[in-house]
Write a structure and sequence with these properties.
single chain; about 120 residues; alpha+beta; 2 helices; about 15% helix; about 30% strand
């Protein structure tokens, strides 16, 4: 009987880290943004893998949550940006993620609108 990988299992989640200008409105939002281990697991279940950083389709915020997780027999460090992108790192390997489905909204500070300022999909 094969063992099915149930997805990432979070080991630890740190408090959010803010790297922007002091006193910016985003600083308070960042400090209030907390993700539980279950929310981090959900973020990665909803996310899509990318071959490189998908920053062009997501907002890049000076706020992130990091920690460690187990997946595919390895321990990875992860970092989730408030704009919905994420990375996993293990030794020499880096993996990139982006969470763009509607269910990601409550898990990030600024959900993607595919960089469309009107919030309307372009056809």
């Amino acid at each position: 009987m094969a063992i099915v990988d149930a997805g990432p299992q979070v080991i630890s989640v740190a408090l959010p880290r803010y790297d922007g200008p002091p006193g910016d409105a985003l600083q308070d939002a960042c400090q209030a943004w907390e993700l539980s281990a279950q929310q981090v697991e959900r973020f990665f279940q909803l996310s899509e893998p990318y071959s490189s950083n998908p920053y062009s389709g997501f907002y890049q915020l000076p706020c992130s949550v990091s920690g460690e997780l187990q997946a595919e027999g390895k321990t990875w460090t992860f970092e989730i940006n408030g704009g919905g992108t994420a990375t996993w790192r293990a030794k020499e390997e880096t993996r990139y993620w982006g969470c763009s489905v509607e269910e990601c909204g409550p898990l990030v500070l600024m959900p993607t609108d595919s960089m469309n300022p009107d919030g309307v999909a372009q056809l």
